[in-house]
Amino acid sequence: MKTIRLINELQELLDRSKRDNQTVGFVPTMGFLHEGHLSLVEHARKENDIVVMSIFVNPAQFGPGEDFEAYPRDEQHDAKLASEAGVDILFIPDPDEMYPQDGGIQILPGPQASSLCGATRPGHFDGVLKVVLKLFNIVDPDHSYFGMKDAQQLAIIETFVRDFNLRTKIVRVPTIREEDGLAKSSRNVNLSIEERLVAPAIQKALKIGEELFHQGLQVEEIVEEVANQITSNSPGRIDYVSLLAYPSLLPYTTDAREAIIACAVKFEKTRLIDNIIMSTKG
Ligand code: AMP
Fold first, then answer.
1. 226-246 tens-digit pLDDT
2. Residue 4 in 3-state DSSP?
3. What is the CATH number of domain 186-276?
4. Are 209 and 261 within 8 A, CB to CB?
5. What's the pTM value of the predicted model, to 2 decimals?
6. Residue with CA nearest ligand 1 atom 7
């Protein structure tokens, strides 16, 4: 595995592979890798000749007072895991090269970004789209792999690719979980021991929501029950619990093919998100 930090060095290397008609699979991450990230690599490895992973804690997607500084980082360990998982090129760009100056140009996501995390993290998805577009332009991947753990991000990126005719194909990868059901996340290390013990309550509550959804309860009743389950089984504070159509993220109506029940829960030092996608066709 090659580790590359400079944009032009990466592009020269990839240009050579593309001249040889090799396909490129791309896995963008913020590092502190876990099995969720490695599952994206596994999919990319099967479907492409070259696998590129990026590690970049993107300042543009963190708001004031969010956990940019506290976001966990461990480049050496990440490099070991990436190499073992079959990454060919690890791209770790320098923030100064990624954002040399601010020309003030914004990418504004549409209505899909106004609910869920978009409602409580204003500007977050603007920053996500900015870095994703830059990375897609730099890497020019045939396939790009994103986790369903961040289902709203995935839905917005799919729309972005479609609306702006970006040439990469987006591949959805299912959420990888700990044995007790907690979705794997780099942020889980910022839970206290006590918080970690009760954090699986989030997934359990969403599963109860899924059952109630299939029993035909009203959206408001389901959301209220899920929120109650979370607050009565953990010290976490609810940022949101929502049930929407997926991937439109519009209010759920019975003609939607899929629905999402999603939540964000704030603990002392960190905020966790999780979701379940529910088919409406039984
Ligand atoms: P992050 O480093 O958290 O920005 O995540 C990078 C990519 O890994 C995103 O596409 C995430 O959706 C995906 N990812 C993060 N956690 C998981 C997980 N538990 N299962 C599957 N994919 C994940």
1. 999 999 999 999 999 999 999
2. strand
3. 3.30.1300.10
4. yes
5. 0.98
6. 29
